[in-house]
Design a protein that fits this description.
Number of strands: 0
Radius of gyration: 21 Å
Oligomer: single chain
Length: 395
């Protein structure tokens, strides 16, 4: 099937096979991004590097994701978006091959840079593509499905990498992405319609979005949310081991539970977003303020902590889909430029939150990242208030 997206069609059936195909691609990309977390030791041993050097596999992919997100849509502005997505999927497969057969650290890091390019480029386009191919009422559900793919990957990437690494070695674990990526390419070729590029893209147009006060305020609130999330979640394992005193099996169950409740949240969120977006963008961060602070006071109580962390997963994981939906309603004509900012700022927020939380954890105390998280969540919730009031006024 080779179809072309028609901009003049306002009422159309959503091609769910194309949405599911994009969800599979997002799952593969995120799983590939975070798989090294559980494979650092064997990678370092075989390539004769330190675990810290192996850990830079995450950093370099993040760097190239930010760079690609901000600039790739400008370089490829005139290209059919279907061809661009297919190209990023080829880069994904090339990354898997480069990492699998890397004879040394340099080639290994080159392969990791390729996955960063694929992630940054794909995610910067994904919101715009979903908004173009889905009918207007189905956009929140389609975006939640897209986010669900990445949420599922975030849950299983580390344990899957560990399992496959023990079964077929770390190279075999990375090679798994090659046939999956090839399958995604073929599926995209069949189900994705042609979507003409925009000849009007420019670096100035991308950066001028930040001159839009509504968009800039929304992105600030979003950055604060992700900073709060990763300031705390990055250090959950030492917290659960040293403060809650969980053994490895219950600790693993709690972490799995966080992922599963988060995945459940992504499936529940579309119905809420249709008429209650304010409850998500204001209410969810406010509830997370309470959870973070209660964890400080009751972190030594295992069952209470486990229950709170399940709620943590439920209220954090669906929020990216909420911000993507907000963006489709706020800047519907500039979604590619907005998507570039979305990806770049999330990567910045994750890095900043994890770094700030780590400094506080080491130099102030285990509880300090939790307090930082609560403060930043509160700021995100407060900043979202005028956005939602403005939306109500415009409606």
């Amino acid at each position: 099937m080779d179809t072309t997206y028609n901009f003049n069609i306002e009422t159309r059936a959503t091609p769910w096979n194309a949405v599911i195909c994009m969800m599979l691609t997002s799952f593969t990309l995120v799983a590939m991004e975070f798989m090294p977390v559980s494979l650092l030791t064997p990678i370092a041993t075989e390539l004769a590097i330190t675990p810290g050097q192996a850990g830079q596999a995450i950093s370099i992919s993040g760097f190239f994701a930010v760079f690609t997100a901000l600039f790739s849509n400008l370089v490829l502005a005139n290209f059919d978006r279907r061809l661009v997505v297919l190209g990023y999927t080829i880069v994904l497969v090339a990354s898997g091959l480069a990492v699998t057969f890397a004879p040394n650290y340099l080639v290994f890091m080159f392969g990791r840079a390729l996955i960063g390019i694929s992630i940054g480029g794909y995610w910067s386009l994904s919101t715009a593509i979903i908004a173009r191919i889905a009918s207007r009422p189905d956009v929140p559900k389609a975006l939640a499905m897209l986010q669900g793919g990445s949420a599922l990957a975030a849950v299983i990437a580390a344990p899957l990498g560990s399992f496959l690494g023990g079964l077929i070695g770390w190279r075999g674990a990375f090679f798994i992405v090659v046939p999956i990526g090839a399958a995604a390419f073929i599926w995209q070729l069949i189900v994705l319609p042609r979507m003409p590029g925009s000849p009007h893209g420019s670096l100035g147009r991308t950066f001028s979005l930040m001159a839009n006060p509504t968009f800039a305020l929304g992105m600030t609130a979003m950055v604060l949310f992700f900073m709060g999330q990763f300031a705390l979640s990055t250090y959950l394992r030492p917290f659960l081991e040293d403060i809650t005193h969980l053994g490895i099996n219950p600790l693993s169950l709690v972490l799995l539970g966080i992922g599963l409740t988060g995945l459940g949240g992504t499936w529940l969120i579309p119905g809420i977003l249709r008429s209650h977006m304010a409850h998500v963008l204001i209410g969810f961060p406010a509830l997370l303020v309470v959870i973070a602070l209660v964890l400080v006071g009751l972190g030594s109580h295992a069952y209470v902590t486990a229950g709170l962390l399940l709620l943590w997963g439920l209220f954090t994981t669906p929020v990216p889909a909420a911000w993507m939906t907000w963006m489709t309603r706020t800047i519907p004509e500039h979604l590619e430029e907005g998507g570039a900012w979305f990806v770049a700022l999330i990567q910045f927020a994750i890095t900043s939150g994890a770094f700030g939380g780590g400094v506080l954890f080491d130099h102030v105390g285990w509880w300090s990242p939790f307090v930082l998280s609560a403060i930043v969540f509160l700021a995100s919730s407060i900043l979202a208030v005028p956005l939602m009031l403005q939306r109500t006024t415009n409606a």
